[in-house]
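lol ok so funny story. i was supposed to be doing the assay writeup but got distracted and ended up predicting the structure for this chain instead. priorities right. anyway since i did it might as well share w the group, maybe its usefull for someone
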Amino acid sequence: MMQSLVATQSQGRLAMSSKKSGFSGAINHFQTRVCAMRGVESRVVQIEASRVCDLTGKKANNGYVVTFSHKRNKKLQQPNLQYKKVYWPEGQRWVKLRICTKAIKTVEKKGLQAMAKEAGIDLWKLPYEDARLGRKEWLAQNESTPPMKKNTRKMKNPEKLAASKKTPLTAKYCSGKIALVRSE
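and the output, tada:
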């Protein structure tokens, strides 16, 4: 996964802006680009997001592949990382984490709150899905309609429109995705 941070020269100082705070990756190199619209030179930092477990801090291990003739070739043994939504009962939400399979077992034993405290993670700042009953009831009562673009090819003749057997397409949410369905 690649992320890029944009650094601009402003009054002799280097200012950096990021969409995601606190990365644990390595800076590969700087690239210099000139913005055509503003004429300002900006430097782009290429960052590779490292493969590290959010809760345990597990990362790649150096190892060897040993051939039949006992030649040794270096190899990285990566942790078994999974993107996982874990339920956090204190916050009444599903928190999205990138954790190793051993951490999944440890969360079941210790609990998410205790492991996050050990790792120094603020669970309130992570991406989540709300699981509160009040919120679910409100969403069920106030069913939202997805956005739909304006139909420029719509029939303009009202007589033809009334005689047409086709009903107009409407947008509906279907298992989290927008689907265009003919209303009946």
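Residues 1-23, 26-30 have pLDDT under 50 and may be disordered. The radius of gyration is 26 Å.
back to the writeup now i swear
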